[in-house]
Amino acid sequence: MKTLCRVIERMFDHSTEVNAGTPVSEAIKEIADFVAPTSLANEKILPVDKELAALFPAKGIRRGSIVSVSGGASVSLAIALTAEISRGGNWIGVVGLPSLGLSAVSEMGIPLQRWVFIDQPKVQIEESIAVLAAGVDLILLGEETKIAPSQTRRFVARIRAQGSSVIFVTDKNSSQLTFGLDLSLSVKSSKWLGLGMGHGRLSSRRVEVSVSGRGAASRSQKIAFWLPNSQGEIQRITHSVSREKKVIQGRPSVVSGSELEETIDIPQAS
């Protein structure tokens, strides 16, 4: 069985890639050699964008915690959560998320110097994740990553012991993992805005995220964000958006970023 691993060392300047013909054991060894000496767990909380901090009781992702991001726009939300972590020089591992492209990450201004990708996790999943957990700060796991029920407790224990954090990403309504889950972020609605009078272009997206978990996060809540707003930035929505249309010269018109002519539902896509 073969796997595909991409190790991005310097975006556009230099990259190391392990092709599909590389045996799994060799790919895993290369990952271990590449990341293990460089990752240091100096902080207990991994930082997130200040606009997203309200999703977490600690205002960031606790080391050793396991988070689920599900529903429409789950990939976009997961990428957004990595931004400050990556900018801080931490390592990010991605397993079983082939839909997550480098362009989608770089377009958000996220540096890729310390990202590791394993695209097709067909075999030795637990070993691959164990190596990543020992060397990276945050691991994104896609729904293609199947952890055997018999390995779940061991997986959770290893993540907690190593101090790495995990985000399960799925476009379904819930994650495959239930045991050991500390926080669940479920995108309940995703609406693109910007089209009006039958023309125009999509300029911003409003998402509503349901937050639940255990401990300090046991009280469920819903929080709305622009992901992104009309300026391409992440912004928490702390007040109701006006849906009133102002009339200029006898016809509806957009007068500000928050007073858009029309809201449209887009099929659940990330």
Say which CATH homologous superfamily of the largest domain is assigned.
Answer: P-loop containing nucleotide triphosphate hydrolases
Strand content: 25-35%
Structural class based on helices, strands and sheet pairing: alpha/beta
What summary fits the major beta sheet? 12 strands, mixed
Principal-axes shape call: globular
Overall number of strands: 16
Q: Do you know the CATH architecture of the largest domain?
A: 3-Layer(aba) Sandwich
**In angstroms, what separates the terminal alpha carbons?**
30 Å
Residue runs with pLDDT of under 50 for 5 or more positions: 9-18, 241-270
The average pLDDT is 76
List the total number of helices.
5
Give the C-alpha Rg.
20 Å
Q: Could you spell the SSE succession in H and E letters?
A: EEHEEEHEHEHEHEEEEEEEE
Helicity level? 10-25%
Descriptive notes:
The structure is a single chain. This protein folds into 2 domains: 5-183, Rossmann fold; 188-265, no CATH class. Helices cover 20% and strands 33% of the residues. With 270 residues, the chain is of the alpha/beta class. The protein has helices at residues 24-35, 74-87, 102-106, 125-135, 152-162; strands at 5-10, 14-18, 45-47, 60-62, 66-71, 92-95, 115-118, 138-142, 165-170, 183-196, 199-213, 221-226, 235-237, 246-248, 251-253, 263-265. The relative contact order is 0.17. The longest helix is centred in the N-terminal third of the chain and has 14 residues, at 74-87.
